[in-house]
Design goal:
This protein is mostly beta strands. Helix content is 8%, strand content 40%. β3 and β4 form a beta hairpin. It is globular, with a radius of gyration of 19 Å.
């Protein structure tokens, strides 16, 4: 079993457009996402659930049933000074993720076979529906890269095991389970 780090393997994209089938985003939907990979320092996307005890007087063993679940999403990003065609600084991630913005993060933890490690048909990707709840600029200090932290509400179940499909036609044949 190999142990891997995410550097030079992972691909992370963001789109405001909901995939037609979030359990099976198309290659075109992945291609239309804005690639944030090189602006990401860290992402924490996690879902967790709980159990509810269901004791009974007829047994010394306390059973339980699944309870509710929730998800959280946060990320640390670099600010950038790349200039657009108009000569203005774009600061891509900062301007893309203001408080209140809704969208979908695509996370390919092991990368894909496409350009810049984009996932292609048959490869897995996580789809995280988010709404940005806070965006906090990092402190300005000498000899330190400018960064910011973004936190988001996850307003529906994430698709943690989505499979990329070639086209929308092939997406309709994929189960929509999460």
């Amino acid at each position: 079993m190999a142990r891997v780090i995410p550097n030079e393997r992972t691909w992370i994209g963001f789109t405001e457009t909901r995939p037609a089938n979030p359990a099976a985003p198309t290659e075109a939907e992945i291609d239309d996402a804005i690639d944030l990979t090189c602006l990401v320092m860290s992402i924490n996307a996690s879902a967790q659930g709980n159990t509810v005890p269901t004791p009974s007087l007829c047994s010394l063993f306390e059973t339980s049933v699944p309870g509710t679940s929730q998800a959280t999403f946060s990320g640390d990003f670099y600010r950038d000074d790349a200039k657009g065609t108009d000569g203005k600084i774009m600061d891509i991630a900062w301007n893309l993720l203001p408080r209140g913005k809704s969208g979908y993060f695509f996370i390919s933890r092991f990368g894909g076979t496409g350009d810049d490690h984009k996932p292609r048909a048959g490869e897995s990707v996580e789809v995280w529906p988010v709404q940005i709840t806070s965006r906090q600029a990092g402190a300005l200090s000498s000899n330190t890269a400018q960064t910011f932290t973004s936190n988001a509400a996850v307003n529906e179940n994430p698709w943690e095991s989505a499979i990329v499909v070639k086209s929308a036609v092939s997406a309709s044949s994929v189960s929509t389970g999460k």
